[in-house]
Amino acid sequence: MFINFQALGCRLNEAELETWANQFMQLGHQVTTESEEADVVVFNSCAVTAQADRKSRQQIGRLQRSNPKARLVVTGCHASLNPDTVKEYLGVDLVVDNQRKDKLVDQTLAYLGDLADFNPLFEPAVGESPNALLLRGRQRGFIKIQDGCRYRCTYCIVTIARGAERSRSEAEILAEINLLHRQGVQEVALTGVHVGGYGGDIGSSLYRLLNEILEHTDIPRIRLASVEPWDLPDHFFSLFLNPRLMPHMHLPIQSGSNSVLRRMARRCKTIEFAALVEKAREAIPLFNVTTDLITGFPGESEQEWRQTMDFVARTGFGHIHIFPFSARAGTKAAGLPNQIEGAVKKARSRELHVLAAELKQGELLRHVGSRAEVLWEQQINAELGQWIGYTPHYHKICSTNSRIGASSISEVCIDSVSHDGSMLVNKGIQPQVSLTDIGQANA
Ligand code: SF4
């Protein structure tokens, strides 16, 4: 049968899709990038914000309308938080909640039973099947290392939807990385819900896992997806002296005000966060730190907001994901007093976007004149031979170079920052098309 995979939300959702796609292909089924052509569509939903919830509902409706004949399997946080409701959505055939999603392939095949239309197209693969990731036009492999979280940040619905922490074994993770590398993937990103808590339930740790990966794999580039800024050992950043570990971390701070962090029940104060960033930059001078920030958390006074803006300006971030507070039913923060008006949240988000753009420009300018090994990911203009890729610091870069190929890594000189301050540029790129077009091409 032909299977189409769709996800909304985090990289963990994407990592899970890749695992299921490879599992189905191992069994002789085929991956299709077109939901209209599929016999089965698997949708990994999201519920991190009210908007994500809405988008998940809308996507299920779109998938059902685009191919009413297909069997629709829905999993992920939106489905796990509302299993009975989602089961009633038009066109939904099977709901697999987060606790059972590691067995999604078995669950789906069991549900389909021996319905003829859903037989494998090929004999189960002897040896390794081609890689679903590359088939889906992606160059970076997301590796799920753990699931769930022991903490209860007051705004977070993920910890409720994903449950307790559970780590995959080191052997399983090493095997998956080596398989991806044999299949042509040059870079992996380690992802989870509480990545820093990896191994707590199996007598390992993130530090130990990274050492194992550096020792027992040859993949050229290893990245960390989002990591909560605590539970990391003092010597953690010495690992980044190995050039295969990319010098970038996404460390969500969420607020720059300690009183707001207390109401969020975050395990990190601003002084601890600043010390962590300093350690990273001491170990690797141009280490890139990016972050998440919530604007308009309940009770956030003007004074607390100023504290956040000052902290952000002092710390400096390569990129900031900005989220206006979204009250999630079932979380403590949804019931807190002094909910902030939408207009105030928006104004604070706008103000922070301006600062974030300035900081990003500064961050990118620090790399101009240097050279970087770039993993090229997407050709955006075949005629002009224009490609987009990412540097080790996780900065997007654009180049015009006909010798580039998808998933190739090449060293280039960083000549400038794009006019809109969104990316780095390798010489000769002053495109005939405006960079806004490139931005739109990437959107
Ligand atoms: S640590 Fe992260 S995943 Fe865990 S509760 Fe807090 S925000 Fe949610």
The total of beta strands comes to 19
The overall pLDDT, averaged over residues, is: 91
- Proper CATH architecture of the largest domain: Alpha-Beta Horseshoe
CATH class of the largest domain: Alpha Beta
> Low-confidence stretches at least 5 residues in length (pLDDT < 50)?
430-443
Radius of gyration: 22 Å
Please give the domain count: 3
How would you portray this structure in words?
- The protein is α/β, with parallel strands linked by helices and 443 residues long.
- The chain folds into three domains: 112 residues, Methylthiotransferase, N-terminal domain (Rossmann fold); 234 residues, tm_1862 like domain (pyruvate-formate lyase- activating enzyme); 72 residues, OB fold (Dihydrolipoamide Acetyltransferase, E2P).
- The chain is built from 14 helices and 19 strands.
- The strands form five sheets. A six-stranded mixed β-sheet has the order 17-14-15-16-19-18. Strands 2-1-3-4-5 form a five-stranded parallel β-sheet, sandwiched between helices.
- Helix 12 links the parallel strand 12 and strand 13.
- Helix 8 runs parallel beside helix 9 and helix 12 runs parallel beside helix 13.
- The C terminus is likely disordered.
- Bound molecules: iron/sulfur cluster.
- Iron/sulfur cluster binds next to helix 7.
